[in-house]
């Protein structure tokens, strides 16, 4: 063998073309797998789709610090970012499997089946799994994708064989342009569209048909999935909330500060924050919804329908909710008028007593239709505060995003220990016997909301003119109420702000301060004092394990 023969040869044009078409075949196969899976999921249930199932499994296994980072940086778009990330990874894997299939056709197709198994396992492992049928979307989608990849790669041009018998290995594809370097630019069959069984037109037709069929199946699947909750949508439209037996007092006229840039005292439903783990918002039919109440210390179990709740005495209350993932100065806080059934009344009817009265259960575990579990202290639920099973929000039936048909909320507690959405089960137990979803992930078992305040205006890095500048914002200490808010400019003395009228101790309170601004860079800081006399702490802590603390500051430049 000459030295020239030992020199590695560059891949031929034929080799690069085969690899590129193989990658394209893999991408088409991946798209077909997802499209078929989505179509099958429409017949099973949307939550069984592989992207949703794998995404849910990813959320469950993601470290708490990463989840907190995602919420902080992406907000309510965190789920969209996760789904796009999953699709991007699947696309890269599909390209890799297509490239592999060029040399090892069966292995590449088998790789697609492996990912179907992963998706099926994720679907079956979800807490809301309804059984083996949840595996069907991933399995059938993978079979369709594997078959398409096998067929498309079979239509690619065959590799040019090395004419030296000694160079051939049985069962291995040898491309003469890659292995021997011969005829790199002499692929006449390729140029003409036919070579060793290669028919470019057949491949183009097959690939185009596969792409069109996948697009059609995907569109049909999305349409059917969109219609999956048709009964739920109809049931919500048919809900007519009865007048509450106990109405909320009218919001005081001076509860809203008249300063541009401050939050609205009542947060519209469309603007209310949403933080949960549901990649697909559950759509529950109110006519078939049931709530079971059972557990330790329950002497009379109850199963309630939605109409049962509406026939009970309803209360109406203004309550501010806060997410434990809210950073200092963050947006995950909102105020709404809620209508619902007093939760303590239901528990008492079932024979439940709080621990202070000798009851055996100190934890109330709420379960959602999507498998979420949230544990609340029984003592707090039954201490006289307006804990409720809410059916209405700002005069309307609950939006689906916020828990229709029924959600739970307890004033004064962060949402992850009180605000179960799409609730279907209430169990009395103990904190020692059971850890709910977030407690298993390093969050505190009990989490009263911390005293906090926020500057809404001026915004960070604003450039107000020298003179009178209105500083304004909100402060909250649910179930304790806000007594005082103070503002500081740079390292100057604390100045007391003007408080707006208080609606209730369960709502946030607006404040304002007329600042005589002078030119230069200025740091504005706010702190609040609640009605127990506790002053908001300066100490900065992260959101984990029981909520962030610290003073909110903004830097502005006065012109």
Percent helix, as a range, is 25-40%
Order of strands across the main sheet: 4-3-12-7-8
Structural class by sheet pairing and helices = alpha+beta
Strand-residue fraction? 15-25%
Q: pLDDT below 50 for ≥5 consecutive residues: which ranges? A: 162-197
Q: Tally the helices.
A: 14
Radius of gyration: 31 Å
The whole-number mean of residue pLDDT values reads 90
| Strand elements, count | 20
Shape: globular
Largest sheet, if any?
A: 5 strands, mixed
C-alpha termini separation: 81 Å
Brief descriptors of the model:
559 residues; alpha+beta; five-stranded mixed β-sheet; 20 strands
Notes on the structure:
The chain contains 14 helices and 20 strands. It has 559 residues and is α+β, with helices and mostly antiparallel strands. Strands 4-3-12-7-8 form a five-stranded mixed β-sheet. Strands 5, 6, 9, 10 and 11 form a five-stranded antiparallel β-sheet that branches. A four-stranded antiparallel β-sheet has the order 13-14-18-17, with no helix packed on it. β15 (482-489) and β16 form a beta hairpin. α2 (13-44) runs parallel beside α10 (200-227) and α6 (105-124) packs antiparallel against α7 (136-154). The longest helix has 32 residues, at 13-44. The protein starts with a helix and ends with a strand. Mean pLDDT is 90; it is low at 162-197.
